[in-house]
Design goal:
- By secondary structure, the chain is an alpha/beta fold.
- It folds into 3 domains: 197 residues, 3-Layer(aba) Sandwich (Rossmann fold); 78 residues, Helicase, Ruva Protein, domain 3; 78 residues, Winged helix-like DNA-binding domain superfamily/Winged helix DNA-binding domain (Arc Repressor Mutant, subunit A).
- It is 51% helix and 13% strand.
- It contains 15 helices and 9 strands.
- The strands form 3 sheets. Strands 2-5-6-1-7 form a 5-stranded parallel beta sheet, sandwiched between helices.
- β8 and β9 form a beta hairpin.
- α5 runs parallel beside α6.
- The two termini are 41 Å apart.
- The protein binds adenosine-5'-diphosphate and magnesium ion.
C-alpha cells in the first residue's frame, strides 16, 4: 500500500484532511464572482487547498474552468506573462474549442513551443520585447479568457512575487486590466503576510479592498487526529491515542511537519503504533534534516541564530521586546531584537501570526525548532 501521508503535491481528496469550510467559501466566491485573497504561513496547506478546490470543481462538474499559476519563480513581467500563458495552455484541452482559439492567439505572438525533456509537458518559449508589448500581451491573455463562454477561476499562487519585478506599476497595470473583466474570478494566494496585506489592504495601492480575505489556521485537532488514525487503520496499523497526541504536539499541528512525521512513522510501522515508534520516527527526521539546519546557521549572524534558539525554546513568543524575554536569553535591546525579527521574518525562518490583534512569532520550520530545543540546553 502506498504511503497515505503525502507531504509534496496534492493527490486526492481522500488523502487531504478537512478544510471543508474554507473549500465551501472559496467555491461560493468563485460562483458569485468575488475575488479572494488567501493568506497563511508557509506549508500550512494553501496550495493544497487550491488543488483541492480545482479537484472539486472538476469532479463535481461545476461549470467553472480552473487555471492555476504559481509565480514563485518569476522575476519579471515577461516571466509572469509566460507563466500565465503556460498555465492557460495546460488548463485547457488543446482540441477543445477554447484550446483551438488559444493556440491561434498564441501563434499570433510568434512563440516557439518546445517540450520539456523530463515531463514532456509543452513549454512556451517566446520573447516579448519591450514593456509596451508585454502589457498588450497580458491584456490580450486576460481578455481572451474573459471572452470565453465559461466562468473562469484564475488562481495565482505566491502572488506577492509581483513586488519583486523590476517594472514599475505592475499592480496598477494588473488591476486596471482585471477591473474590466466579467467572467474571470481571481484567487490570490501568498505566504508573505506583510506584503500581501500591503497589496490588498494598503489604502494607497491599486488592489485596495478589491478582494475578500481568507486565512488558513491549523487543522482542527480532533479532525486531524481522526484522519491520521483512519489512514493507519486502513493499512492495518492500530495507533494508540498517546501516539496520536505525541504526533500532533511534537509537530505543533503544522500540516507539512505533521504529514512528514506520519509518513515516516507509517514507513516504520509493522503492527501497532505507539509513542516509542513515533519518537523513533521523530529522531530519524531530525537526524536527516540536521545538515540543512547547519546550513541555516551559516547563513545567519550569531544574534539571529541565538534569537531563533530562544524562540524555539519558548515555542512561540508574543512580546519579543519584553525585558523579561530579552534578558532571559541575553538578546540585547528591543531595537536590535526588532531588527532581528524583521530579518528572520524576511528570510522565512520566523512566522508571524495574529491572534486577537497581537503578533505571535514561531519558527516556520517546526523540525528546526525541535532540533534547536534539544541541542541547546
Ligand atoms: N488538509 C491537508 N491534509 C493533508 N495534507 C495536506 C493538507 N494541506 C496540505 N497538506 C500537505 O502539506 C504540505 C504543505 O502544504 P502546501 O499546500 O504546499 O502549503 P503552502 O502552500 O501553504 O505552503 C503538502 O505536501 C500538502 O500536500
Ligand atoms: Mg504553496
Amino acid at each position: 500500500m502506498d504511503n497515505p501521508f503525502i507531504f509534496r503535491a496534492y493527490k486526492t481528496r481522500e488523502l487531504f484532511c478537512d478544510r471543508q469550510k474554507e473549500l465551501e467559501l472559496l467555491l461560493s466566491n468563485c460562483l458569485s464572482g468575488a475575488d479572494t485573497t488567501l493568506i497563511a504561513q508557509r506549508r500550512i496547506g494553501k496550495t493544497g487547498l487550491i488543488y483541492r478546490l480545482m479537484d472539486e470543481i472538476r469532479s463535481e462538474k461545476i461549470p467553472i474552468l480552473p487555471i492555476y499559476v504559481d509565480i514563485f519563480a518569476t522575476r519579471t513581467m515577461e516571466d509572469f506573462v509566460k507563466a500565465l500563458s503556460a498555465a492557460i495552455m495546460s488548463a485547457i484541452p488543446e482540441k477543445s474549442s477554447i484550446g483551438k482559439k488559444f493556440s491561434k492567439f498564441i501563434k499570433s505572438l510568434r512563440p516557439v513551443i518546445t517540450y520539456d525533456v523530463l515531463t514532456s509537458a509543452p513549454q512556451l518559449q517566446f520573447t516579448i520585447q519591450g514593456e509596451e508589448e508585454q502589457k498588450q500581451t497580458l491584456k490580450g491573455l486576460l481578455t481572451f479568457l474573459d471572452e470565453q463562454d465559461t466562468k473562469i477561476l484564475l488562481a495565482i499562487d505566491e502572488f506577492q512575487q509581483i513586488r519583486e519585478y523590476p517594472e514599475k506599476n505592475v499592480e496598477a497595470l494588473l488591476r486596471t486590466i482585471i477591473q474590466t473583466l466579467h467572467n474571470v474570478t481571481f484567487l490570490y494566494c501568498g505566504s508573505k503576510r506583510h506584503m500581501m496585506l500591503d497589496i490588498f489592504a494598503g489604502e494607497r495601492n491599486p488592489f485596495y479592498r478589491s478582494t475578500e480575505f481568507v486565512t488558513l489556521q491549523k487543522l482542527d485537532r480532533d479532525v486531524y487526529a481522526d484522519f491520521i488514525k483512519k489512514h493507519f487503520l486502513e493499512a492495518g496499523f492500530e495507533i494508540d491515542s498517546d501516539a496520536l497526541d505525541y504526533i500532533l504536539d511534537w509537530t505543533m499541528r503544522h500540516t507539512y511537519f505533521t504529514q512528514r512525521l506520519c509518513h515516516t512513522v507509517f514507513n516504520m510501522a509493522t503492527s501497532k503504533v505507539d509513542v516509542e515508534l513515533v519518537k523513533q520516527g521523530a529522531a530519524q527526521i531530525l537526524q536527516s534534516d540536521a545538515a540543512v539546519f547547519g546550513q541555516y546557521q551559516q547563513m545567519l549572524t550569531a544574534g539571529q541564530w541565538n534569537f531563533l534558539i530562544a524562540v524555539a525554546k519558548e515555542g512561540e513568543v508574543t512580546q519579543f521586546s519584553s525585558r523579561q524575554f530579552l534578558q532571559k536569553y541575553h538578546l540585547g535591546n528591543p531595537s536590535s531584537a526588532s531588527r532581528i525579527v524583521t530579518s528572520l521574518v524576511e528570510k522565512n525562518l520566523l512566522d508571524e501570526s495574529i491572534h486577537e490583534g497581537k503578533s505571535t512569532y514561531s519558527l516556520n520550520d517546526v523540525f528546526l525548532s525541535r532540533w534547536l530545543e534539544e541541542k541547546y540546553i
